[in-house]
Design a protein that fits this description.
heterodimer; A: alpha+beta; Mth169, Chain: A; B: alpha/beta; Rossmann fold; nine-stranded mixed sheet; 5 helices; 22% helix
């Protein structure tokens, strides 16, 4: 079995209102000096069997087509086991 | 002859019935289309209505773009089929790359619902021909993720080519770049609009009858074709 983790983040130039709200909450709850918070998504994908080249390429394609929107988001894909 | 205009219902669509009603009032024949059927029932145009298709899971419109009916709509839109996406429909059109850019969470974090003044900036597109240039209209706006974003080059291009169809007036409700409320593709057949013209077609329930023009624009063009 293989596990792949895809992290999706808004591009740096896109405003992240959720991250900003979390930043405000952290300050109100006593954490000082928070200069920025960006909120993203993490997908943990478990696969049966080994990750072969075909499925690896398909995952890379779908990470950019389904899991993220390349207009506003970047993704990283990591095979963790 | 009356124009047959399809209205797609996705799981989570809210405004499909209002869209169908607006089409009838504007003189067209609404045709119900189902997200799971790869069948456009020979319609002359399509409206993608507002709502929360697939619960807005993942991103608004991200899953809807893979619905069987959408693969047909995307193919036909590239060939010139008139398509109007309202609110969630606009989000679906951007996710499907029929329109550039994306819709993101309102910059102030709150869902907003109010009557919104717009200025019509394009009277060439399939869905805006019955308006006059610079005309101000008031129609309802209701969204949580209505902030239009695109890179500077795309924004410059949209304005240079006259592809911004409407801008927000008297206050930007959601942080949309350059006050953009709606855009069209280069061919003018695909239009995305964040506010809701289908809720402004009857005196009893709407703030105006200003929304009718979007539907009559397409219907009159189709009937006179």
């Amino acid at each position: 079995m293989a596990r792949v983790v895809v992290n999706v983040m808004l591009k740096p130039e896109i405003l992240d209102p959720q991250g900003r709200a979390v930043q405000g909450a952290l300050g109100r709850l006593g954490l000082t000096g928070v200069s920025d918070v960006r909120q993203g998504k993490q997908f943990v994908i478990d696969l049966e069997g080994d990750l072969d080249a075909d499925r690896s390429a398909k995952l890379e394609e779908l990470a950019g087509e389904l899991l993220s929107n390349p207009v506003i988001e970047d993704f990283t894909l990591t095979v963790v086991e | 002859m009356s124009a047959r205009i399809g209205v797609v219902t996705f799981p989570g669509s809210l405004d499909d019935r209002d869209a169908a009603r607006a089409i009838s009032i504007a003189g067209g024949e609404p045709v119900a289309l189902w997200h799971g059927d790869a069948d456009l029932k020979n319609v002359d145009a399509v409206v993608l209505p507002g709502g929360f298709s697939y619960g807005d899971y993942l991103r608004c419109g991200a899953i809807a773009k893979f619905a069987p009916v959408m693969s047909l709509i995307i193919e036909k839109a590239h060939q010139g089929l008139p398509v109007l996406g309202i609110c969630n429909g606009f989000q679906i059109l951007c996710e499907s790359h029929l329109l550039p850019g994306a819709l993101t969470r309102n910059d102030h974090q709150h869902f907003i619902c109010r009557d919104q003044k717009l200025r019509i900036e394009n009277t060439e597109s399939y869905w805006t021909r019955d308006y006059s240039m610079g005309q101000e209209i008031v129609i309802p706006l209701k969204n949580g993720e209505g902030g239009y974003v695109a890179d500077e080059k795309t924004l410059d291009q949209l304005f240079a080519e006259g592809r911004v169809i409407a801008t927000y007036q008297d206050g930007n409700p959601n942080g949309s770049y350059r006050d953009i409320a709606g855009i069209t593709n280069s061919r003018g057949n695909v239009v995305g609009l964040m506010p809701h013209p289908e809720h402004a077609v009857e005196a009893l329930t709407g703030p105006s009858l200003d929304g009718l023009g979007f539907f009559t624009s397409a219907i009159n063009t189709l009937v006179n074709a």
